[in-house]
């Protein structure tokens, strides 16, 4: 029993360490009345995720992108929010990755590839200058930041405390200059 | 806590009707319907958990990890909190009960701890063992041989698919080179069909489709050649072929596609780009398709699905294990909560009636006999409660009877007390002396008259009678007591004479023995009356009778004696001088003595025939002034002073009789002072007589006092002064003061004599106003 407990503790530490190792690079760019957002999730395609993908499960990388404004006295205000979901399903018979990307529920892209690298790129890195937000409501020369939180589903939740979150978060400030 | 409950139960004694409290809401533990509903819900939850555990592998992974596991964990956490709450609440209650020293708190604490121990320890052990079993069972899902078999089978299926794709792709490439590009570009169906026909007829592929590429638009189907071996109903120029043609035309390297058929099986499609040999410009797309038999494709897909499920099971091992453990934990917690609640309920069920009985006994002991306990069960405890209520009812009835008896007794005691006080008041007020003696010969009670007559004080109560009556003058009483016989109720009576301050006191005494209810001696009552006035009256009456007889018997011969003496004087008037002188002297003496005897007899007659007073309202001071005026200048050595009260009210008196009283008292005073030629008193004071009056409105009398400063009267003579024929004077008849006393008595007054200060005597007459 003690050994099982130690094993569970070990895996919990390892998962936490893996989540901590993942990094999310965010680059906002206001241009032409839009806020273009580029982000890249590094070190997230772990062996555990890879095994889950190759098991044929439908694995989703869920990115919640918030355009926020800092507040010194109160909680930061959220100006706009959007959610991008990149889903992959691997067909073990044909060895093809079916990748789908949706934004707020709308299918934006559907791809198939036999290359794992391509699938990984589409899932974690191929988010370049996405015109996610309008800059019409932003004040000139004010500082804002874009925060991206990413997690995968289904979660590999534990029995003892399933509410444990392994979200990866990244954010970058920018000054809006029209 | 006094509770009045359920007075309608038939076994309880009848009680006066009273307002029943509103019916209490039955708690959950006493409501069989709710208990049954709870049990049904519990079993429903257990069944749902069993179904959920059975279907857990079929659930969507997202649903499993995002919903089911969360919900189960939340439910487990809630139940743990509920269990902790229930345990903490009951532990706190037990501690509070023990601290308050409630009855059976220790017993209940032990019972609860034993039941909790019997519940929690096995449950925790089962939880630990079951959790380990679940973990080991999930580990056994995966083994290397199964892993190898499934992987190898999947590899076989994948390799076969891959080979077929390669073959079809090679055919597509080759056909793209064989079909003349100019015919495709020109849209020459026949030329293209003739070029394709050998490929199909020779069985290399099942279906060949050629698309023509137009500049700036999607490829359009040109011609398709199909083998008869293809199953009927497959979609010709299907959308998948169109998309594949477009993808190939766009230069994509992804040029393969599998298209499931409705009748089973799949079409393996591969595309190839046709180029103009001269310009290398794409002019068309060749899509070659080959049919995979339905059974084979199905088997391959099953192999892959089995492999994927196995891999998914490994991936989802933690959530699944968590679900199973959560379900098992939930079952354990449900059993634990249920068993704990049941244990607490049973402990309460056992101790509560006993506590209620103890509390009820305390209430009954405190006198609240209307306290009742509501029977909560029909078992032996219920019977015990019924018996307690019956006992309480009987106690209440007995107490009501006792209360009535007590009130009757109090009323009778009050009556007796009133009667006793009345008798005591009568005894205190009556002139008859009463002494009660106990069986032990001690004085029980003695009234004021007895104390006064015998000159005793209240301290004699409780003293032995022989000690009380040991005094010399009271010895006759002791002798009288000895005469009574305890065995009989016959009283012993005797008249005894006591001497009080030189005065003789005559008491008519009677001693009556008391008999108890058993007839035994219970004491005695000694009663004595002061019969001195009666005896005195009897003596006076006797004297009056004697005086009347004497007056009658003596007076009759006096007149002949007097006449005879005067006759002798006249007869010897002519006798010689010596004889005449002798006769004269003798007859004079005889006549004088006869005259004295006449006066004496007249006084006796007057005493005997004292007329009734004719009282009229009179001014006493005036009567006295008129009377004292007779003494003016009569005695030169004796002073007669007047001290009359002013404003004296008129009183009803017989003036002549009162005047006689005053003359008698003043004459006696003059006589006591030595007569009209009295000498000065030894103290140097002149002989003085003071006549005074005073009104005593409080007692309703007017006092007349006649005092002198003479030598006074001895105590022995004082009481005899008013007796007839008693005189301290040499020539007194002894009837003066007797007449005075009679006059005053017939006026309703009294007279008494006391010593004057410093010397002399004071006669005080009290006459009613």
Question: Brief overview, please?
Answer:
The complex is a heterodimer of chains A (178) and B (769). Chain A has 178 residues and is an alpha+beta fold.
**How confident overall, as mean pLDDT of chain A?**
83
Largest sheet of chain A: 6 strands, antiparallel
- Proportion of residues in helical segments of chain A: 10-25%
Rg calculated over all Cα atoms of chain B: 75 Å
Your description of this structure?
The complex is a heterodimer of chains A (178) and B (769). Chain A is of the alpha+beta class. Helix content of chain A is 21%, strand content 49%. Chain A has helices spanning 2-21, 47-54, 116-124, and strands spanning 23-31, 34-42, 59-69, 77-91, 96-103, 106-113, 127-134, 143-153, 168-175. Chain A has a 6-stranded antiparallel β-sheet with strand order 6-5-4-3-8-9. Chain A has a 3-stranded antiparallel β-sheet with strand order 1-2-7. Chain A is globular. Chain B has 769 residues and is α+β, with helices and mostly antiparallel strands. Chain B has 19 helices and 17 strands. A 5-stranded antiparallel β-sheet of chain B has the order 2-1-5-4-3, with helices on both faces. In chain B, strands 7-6-10-9-8 form a 5-stranded antiparallel β-sheet, sandwiched between helices. In chain B, a hairpin with a 4-residue loop joins strand 14 (688-696) and strand 15 (701-708). At the A-B interface, helix 2 of A face helix 2, helix 3, helix 4, helix 8 and helix 9 of B.
Topology:
The complex is a heterodimer of chains A (178) and B (769).
Chain A: H1 2-21, E1 23-31, E2 34-42, H2 47-54, E3 59-69, E4 77-91, E5 96-103, E6 106-113, H3 116-124, E7 127-134, E8 143-153, E9 168-175
Antiparallel strand pairs in A: 1-2, 2-7, 3-4, 3-8, 4-5, 5-6, 8-9
Chain B: H1 32-55, H2 61-100, H3 105-140, H4 144-178, H5 181-186, H6 189-201, E1 207-212, E2 220-226, H7 239-249, E3 256-260, E4 266-275, E5 282-292, H8 294-315, H9 317-365, H10 380-429, E6 433-437, E7 443-446, H11 448-454, H12 465-468, H13 475-483, E8 492-500, E9 503-515, E10 521-530, H14 532-571, H15 577-608, E11 616-618, H16 620-628, E12 639-643, E13 651-653, H17 655-673, E14 688-696, E15 701-708, H18 715-718, H19 736-746, E16 750-755, E17 761-768
Parallel strand pairs in B: 12-14
Antiparallel strand pairs in B: 1-2, 1-5, 3-4, 4-5, 6-7, 6-10, 8-9, 9-10, 11-13, 14-15, 15-17, 16-17
